[in-house]
Design brief:
The chain contains 11 helices and 13 strands. The chain has 319 residues and is α/β, with parallel strands linked by helices.
Length: 319
């Protein structure tokens, strides 16, 4: 089978991780790399490019025309509604879902030690919105590129307090997978910042008609607890009509046989943040996600999202 992936270091780690598991299950796998729209356009913030399949469209086309048999994605990049003819065949075990504070080498403190007006870098509107809700005085700048590139830009930004960045916010999962966990100064408390929908999970996609491949992927890769959690999170996102660049955050987990789901929507300037929690049965994951989305909408999340859509570039699409 031919496995398609983006060509970044993290994407290749993820692809080879999946390929190795499939080989151990007796399958023959070749890895094929692609450059996506999101990889090509690096001089603009993600929200100005558009977010419908930003990192997935090229692989979708290859699946549909039979060039590849499966594609591996960071699930947070995968639209909640796939193109006709494709199916999310398996979700593998989740790495840590948290966001992480990566400090400049010349800044010795944690997040709580940031001075007034400190500068943090991130490519995510979700992170920006929650940071500003927590600390309105913080300055947030955009940074693009793969994980090592962002860290290199942080280190080269200059001295903190003299125009340089105090730190950057990245997904803990990517840092761990690339053996860069040593750069994590702090895993951000979910009370301050909820993660992106499906953050830390891998989604494996194949053609819907290719039932043999779908069955093989499900058997070798699917993790039941992670599948339940991301089902709830993605249902919430779908109901809110949010894409991967709209500041919707969610975190689901099973504890004591009960599914817990936290969700939040925040204004880009942090002036409004709507957040709530629901619990339910794991078997009702999809319904729980929709129910929490409705609760957030009832508390003003729709107004926040409409304002964000009006403020961002006109070519931003909803997922």
């Amino acid at each position: 089978m031919k496995l398609g992936t983006r060509a970044s270091k993290l994407a290749l780690w993820q692809a080879h991780h999946v390929a190795d598991r499939l080989r151990r299950a007796g399958h023959s796998i070749d890895v094929v790399t692609f450059t996506t729209q999101g990889d090509r356009i690096l001089d603009k913030p993600l929200a100005e490019i558009g977010d419908k399949g930003l990192f997935t469209q090229e692989l979708d086309r290859a699946l549909l025309d039979g060039t590849i048999h499966l594609a591996v994605h960071s699930l947070k990049d995968l639209p909640t509604t796939l193109p006709p003819g494709l199916v999310l065949a398996a979700v593998s075990e989740r790495e840590e879902p948290w966001d992480a504070f990566v400090a400049h080498p010349d800044f010795d403190g944690a997040l709580a030690d940031l001075p007034p007006g400190a500068i943090l870098a991130t490519s995510s509107l979700r992170r920006q919105a929650q940071l500003k809700a927590w600390r309105p005085d913080l300055r947030v700048v955009s940074v693009r590129g793969n994980v090592p590139t962002r860290i290199a830009k942080l280190d080269a930004s200059g001295a903190p307090g003299a125009g340089g960045w105090h730190g950057a916010i990245l997904a803990a999962a990517g840092l761990i997978r690339l053996d860069l966990a040593g750069r994590i100064r702090e895993r951000i408390d979910p009370a301050v910042m909820l993660p992106a929908v499906s953050q830390g999970a891998l989604g494996i996609v194949c053609a819907e008609a290719d039932t043999a491949t779908a069955d093989a992927l499900r058997t070798a890769l699917a993790d039941p607890a992670t599948t339940v959690a991301v089902t709830a999170e993605r249902a919430l996102l779908r109901r809110l009509e949010g894409g991967c660049q709209i500041p919707v955050a969610a975190w689901a987990r099973i504890d004591g046989g009960v599914l817990h789901l936290d969700g939040a929507v925040a204004a880009l300037d942090g002036s409004r943040l709507v957040r709530d929690t629901l619990r339910g049965a794991p078997a009702d994951a999809e319904a729980l996600g929709v129910e929490l989305a409705e609760a957030l909408l009832g508390r003003g999340a729709g107004e926040i999202l409409r304002a964000i859509r009006a403020a961002t570039a006109p070519d931003v699409r909803l997922t």
